[in-house]
Each structure stands twice: as structure tokens, then as C-alpha cells.
């Protein structure tokens, strides 16, 4: 694990491999360890895999209040500046996917390829805004434990909670370990996020959209919505997975990502 002082905070991150940079952005309320199977698979001579902890999570600085997606995106850009990296392939899951869409909106010239996994592009509804603010208050009041137990069987498909106890345990540990102040700040920021649907039509780089077949948080229909709007995008639906296909079915997820990275290609 490495650390960098960027954008007024300290960011913890993994940086492995020596090839074309691939940046992987975790979701809520997780940390960079959710990408362990992908670091193990792809980091090497062809791909340099960088997985940061977002501010408020893991080993990065916790900043209470509200963290807009634009701030998360700026943190990633600042980390890339620190690493002297210009263009990258960048991907994210769930909230991480929304941060990646924001990164593309703000820094399109730095993006060589997009991975959008188990995420959605639309702005929040009014009911959704209220629910996110209420959940932020609840996390500060109760801590992460009750929420983590409540949503585990939605993050990971119920049949995988039983069949893959190590995966379920890892997901539960990440959620329990997330700082409530950081998670609450992210929820408030997501409540105010913009609509990315129109900006997707302007994506001019290769894109891969992935969804777990049994994802209740971001159903396959959300992935199909993005796939239709991104010119030339590829859609992969991972069978036997819910919201965390990269952990629930890593071989299938990695196969789709490998095919995509082959299409993106190596250094220019």
C-alpha cells in the first residue's frame, strides 16, 4: 500500500504492475480491497493497476459533511498527477461507476477507456434524495453495523452468501469498517449528483458496461440504458451474481474485462 498527499487529503492506494494504467474505483461503502481479484489478475507487464481508497473510506482521509462526486473525481485526477500519469483506462462499480462518469465529464482527455459496473447514470429522484440524506443520518447515529447486516444479501446474492462465505465475509467486513462520517458524506454527495445520461452519448473511447444478473440495487435494465447511449459500448451480464460480480464471479468478470482491455490496447 502507498500513500499520497493530494487535493488536501492523504490517499491510500495500491499501485501494481508496469504497463498501461488501469484505475479501479470502489463503491460505497467499500474500499480498494474489493478489487483484489482484479489486481491479482491484471497487474503485471501489460497493465499497471491502481486502486485508490476514496476520501472517507479505507486508509484515506475522512472528511465529514458532504462529498460531491466532483470532489472524488478531482481526488483521482490529483493522484494521477502525483503519479505523473496522463491518460488511463478507468473503471468503477456502483458509486465508483458514477465517479468514473463524473471523471469523464470533467477530464475527458485523460480517459482511454471506461468500465461501468453495476451502476446507473440518471440523477437522483426526489424520493431517492430524501432516502440518501436519511441514511446518512442513520449511519452517523447507529454506525455501520446494522446497515451492513441489512444489505449484505443484496450486495451479494443470497445464494452466494451461503455458497461463498469468504466473499460474503469480505464484503461484510468492508461495510462494517467504513467510517460512518465518510460514508454519510458520500451519500449526501450522491443525492445531489447530476444526470449523466446525455453525456454518455459523447463518450468517444471504448466502454464496457457490466451488471450482475441478480443485482437488485442496479438492475440489468440500468446497464442496458447506459449501453444504448454509449456509442460502440459492450454489455456483459454476469450470471450467478448480484451487485458485486467482480467478487462473486471473478473469473467471468475478469474474462469480460480482459476482452475489453485487449480492445483498448496497450501504450500509444
Automatic annotation (TrEMBL):
Residues 21-250 form the AB hydrolase-1 domain. GO terms for molecular function: hydrolase activity. InterPro entries: AB_hydrolase_1 (IPR000073), AB_hydrolase_fold (IPR029058), AB_hydrolase_sf (IPR050266), Epox_hydrolase-like (IPR000639). The keyword Hydrolase applies. Gene3D superfamilies: alpha/beta hydrolase. It holds the Pfam family Abhydrolase_1. Keywords: Hydrolase. It comes from the Bacteria. PANTHER family: MONOACYLGLYCEROL LIPASE. This is Alpha/beta fold hydrolase.
